[in-house]
Amino acid sequence: MKYTIIGGGIAGLTTALAFEKKGIDYQVFEKTPALKEVGAGIWLAPNALQVLEILGILEEVKSQGNSIDRITLGKSDLSALSDTPQDKVKDTFGYSTIAIHRAKLQQILFDQIPDHKKSLGKGFQSFEKLSNGKIKITFEDQSTTITDFLIGADGINSKVRQQLFPESQIRFTGQTCWRGVANFELDKAFQHRGMELWGNQIRFGMSRILKGKVYWFAVALDRANQKDDPNMVQEKLLGMYKDFHPLINQIIAATPKDKIMRNDITDLRPMKKWSDGNIGLIGDAGHATTPNMGQGGGQAIEDAYYLGLLTNPSSEEHAFDLFYKKRKKKVQAIVNQSWTTGKVAHWKYGTGFRNFLMKNLPKTFIEKKLMKMYIIEK
Ligand SMILES: Cc1cc2nc3c(=O)[nH]c(=O)nc-3n(C[C@H](O)[C@H](O)[C@H](O)COP(=O)(O)OP(=O)(O)OC[C@H]3O[C@@H](n4cnc5c(N)ncnc54)[C@H](O)[C@@H]3O)c2cc1C
């Protein structure tokens, strides 16, 4: 029985690797013609790292990324509201969080998939359910393929989902995010820290991803679909963050202008189903979340693991229904928590009260919640 995976992002490639290890027949199709050094950084939490360890690529991910041993939520002047050393996480799982360039992660995954099972430059266009139960897929170049099962791993704007569940809805948060990678070396004290600083309806996050490379993100309120003049975006950000600690402006200034990206922050309204018959959705295609908990990619990686675990290579039955049952509670809790966190971070009134709350949240409470989120069933 053959599985066709649409999308060679984190979800699609990790699923391909999980299927490869389990002996499940698959083929993965990615729209972009070549993997490029695009994107910025990504934080991979211990739940994602456990899966990557099971799949045999953890050491490579570690060697191309940077360990985050302390996570700090702070104010614009760099003072901490909450500061959580990751020692307990490390003791439990053997590692904490790894920050890595997205393109590096994607390349590591891509290199694990045999050439004959992956195709670049193949954009999915539509599917058709055939009377014999199989699925005919048509690509943008009008070529076709027949498959037994179809997996949509084509991200938040998934075309597979749009055809399967046309009523699904993307929600805009009212927030926009700029991202970049600065050519900058942080002082020793910051080299293994993940930081997010909350100002007045504006925030900034950063971490080192490699020696001399700092990944950062900047979030502010705005209307949807706004564009920046590429020549002015850096100056605009320098102005927006002028009241933050000078380190922030140094990081923005050390970023190549043409590498600064902008995306509106959106998610997918939680859906009652991620599959219909032999067509299923994984990763952002099924349950995109806002990035406030740094878990979208982690959940895509968990999807790959559990779908691989639940799928029987020799069975004519798919595991999409079991998979939804297994995953929905955790995923939806993350989507909801992340949405709320994003709103709190940009509260207009009561910033002092918000900061007081964040400062006084019991550490054990936060730690307990995180540890629970990091658990993978083996
Ligand atoms: C600002 C920001 C910061 C984030 N930070 C983190 C973080 O620190 N940690 C974390 O875990 N998560 C983070 N996330 C979330 C994470 O990026 C996503 O959840 C993750 O990329 C989802 O992976 P995916 O493979 O499902 O989708 P995507 O990464 O979107 O991949 C989809 C793939 O499908 C391809 N595709 C699209 N359409 C087609 C088509 N028609 N045919 C064929 N292929 C197609 C695309 O080219 C792409 O390669 C962040 C997200 C944002 C926006």
Structural notes for this entry:
With 378 residues, this protein is α/β, with parallel strands linked by helices. Helix content is 36%, strand content 28%. The protein is built from 13 helices and 19 strands. α1 links the parallel β1 (2-6) and β2 (25-29). The chain starts with a strand and ends with a helix. Bound molecules: flavin-adenine dinucleotide.
Spell out the blueprint of helices and strands.
Elements: E1 2-6, H1 10-22, E2 25-29, E3 41-44, H2 46-54, H3 58-63, E4 66-68, E5 70-75, E6 80-85, H4 87-93, E7 97-101, H5 102-112, E8 118-119, E9 124-129, E10 135-139, E11 144-147, E12 149-152, H6 159-164, E13 170-183, E14 193-198, E15 202-210, E16 213-221, H7 233-240, H8 246-253, E17 261-268, E18 275-276, E19 279-281, H9 284-287, H10 296-310, H11 320-345, H12 351-360, H13 363-374
Parallel strand pairs: 1-2, 1-12, 2-8, 5-14, 12-19
Antiparallel strand pairs: 3-7, 4-7, 5-6, 9-10, 10-11, 13-16, 13-17, 14-15, 15-16, 18-19
Helix pairs in contact: 1-5, 1-10, 2-10, 7-8, 10-11
The site of flavin-adenine dinucleotide has 33 residues, from helix 1, strand 3, strand 13, helix 9 and helix 10.
